[in-house]
Amino acid sequence: MFDITVKDVLEATGGVLLSGSEDVIIKDVCDDSRKIKEGDLFVPFVGNNVDGHRFIESAMEVGAATFTSQHTGIVISDKPYIYVSDVLKAHQALARYIRENRLSRIPVIGVTGSVGKTTTREMIATALSANVNTYQTEKNYNSQEGLPTCVDRITRKHKVAVLEHGIDDIGTMEILSSISQPDICVVTVIGMAHMQNFGSIEVTRREKLSITSHMNPEGLVLLNGDDPMLAELKGQMNEKVQFYGTADWCDYRAENIRRENYIYYYDFVCGDMRIPVELNALGQHNVGNSLPGLAISYYMGLDVKKAAESYKEFHGVRQKLIRIPGKYNLIDDTYNASPDSMKASINVLDELESEGKKIAVLGDMFELGENSEQLHYDIGKHLATKKIDELVVVGELSQQYVKAVQESDSQIKCYSFKDNGEVALYLMSVMNPEDIALIKASNGMKLKEIVENMQG
């Protein structure tokens, strides 16, 4: 974080100082009183279950200052208590102030999409880090609460920042864009995620593209040309737009794609430039996810060969291959799920070469709206066409996967369990060292418990 003072915070937020000095220096922000450090500004969010104001007193034993929306009079403290009417909006205003007044010369790359945004963000950061010091979104800080914290934590040593933008409701992306003010916008896929809130895929596209609403007018919009909802925008947008993908009309292309074991090889092509790429990632869909990192490296005038070399050692946080010697192999893809990402992960399992059984362990997908049952059934139909031996499900909606498989002519064996503990016990009892299981569902299904139990 660029050092700022309480005076800067007051200017950014319009807050009122109830105690302490406006000359106090703020070195970081924190919304967890258990993790607060000396020099931190405490941000006590008011959540559905917990009100951070309950922890202000303990936070101020260590922290430098705090926001508050519940103290309205004079506070007896030598540390700054800053009154704001809304803590969330105040934190967003502070991040916006920092972006405009401290980070204006640091290029920001904003990444969004219904599917693949985290992996794409990680790959962009990996590629850029081969040439320059790069900041990227920490953990899953891509929301109204998290993205401002990421902006706050960009420092002078960083030459570029890659920020993930995640939304689940109408209007949120415009807020995020106003905070990050990206110079380059990347949109991966327009899919069925959060359909309960968006209502239609057209609205989803509109909201995702709102990432451009506060971007640098001289900046670049980079769209996935392999996604039909984005490809049809060719020539339709006012911003400078380029496309990446496998189609021959894309500005940045992957050609000669081939797979050997768990490694993908392809040629990155832009104009007359052709660079061989070795990608350490599961699934052909990750070839597409890797293209923006190389495209942006080229656009920024960086060494694209060095960027491509970095993909040999790529290690993402999603879709981890876990080998437990002498027992079994797991694909941990438990963080979240949508129809598009579920199909992509099933394709990964189908593509993998295995001497043993292939088992798909699937749970419910959330926030799909009135068509939820049909979307789950469609996943089952997709699964039924693949070279997979067993389907193991947990959750009410997941019964639609089973129904679709059983109504097909597939030979996949289906098993249903009532909780994650039962699933783990079953898998540990039947899996052999050469077997592999994909484990995937929406985060709320907590299928991570299965992985943790099986790792012992």
What's the short story on this structure?
This protein has 456 residues and is an alpha/beta fold. It has 16 helices and 22 strands. It has helices spanning 6-13, 56-59, 87-101, 117-129, 146-152, 172-180, 195-198, 201-209, 228-231, 285-299, 304-310, 339-351, 372-384, 399-406, 420-430, 448-455, and strands at 4-5, 16-19, 25-26, 28-30, 40-42, 65-68, 81-83, 108-112, 134-136, 160-164, 184-187, 220-224, 240-245, 252-260, 263-270, 273-280, 320-324, 328-333, 358-363, 390-394, 413-417, 436-440.
Tell me the CATH topology of the largest domain.
Answer: UDP-N-acetylmuramoyl-L-alanine:D-glutamate ligase
How much strand? 15-25%
Q: Give the proportion of residues in helices.
A: 25-40%
- Counted by DSSP, the helix tally is 16
- Morphology: globular
Segments where pLDDT lies below 50 for 5+ residues? none
CATH class category label of the largest domain = Alpha Beta
What class, by secondary structure content? Answer: alpha/beta
Largest sheet: 9 strands, mixed
What does the average pLDDT come to? 95
Q: Give the number of DSSP strands.
A: 22
Distance between the termini: 39 Å
The assigned CATH architecture of the largest domain is 3-Layer(aba) Sandwich
Question: Radius of gyration in whole Å, from Cα?
Answer: 24 Å
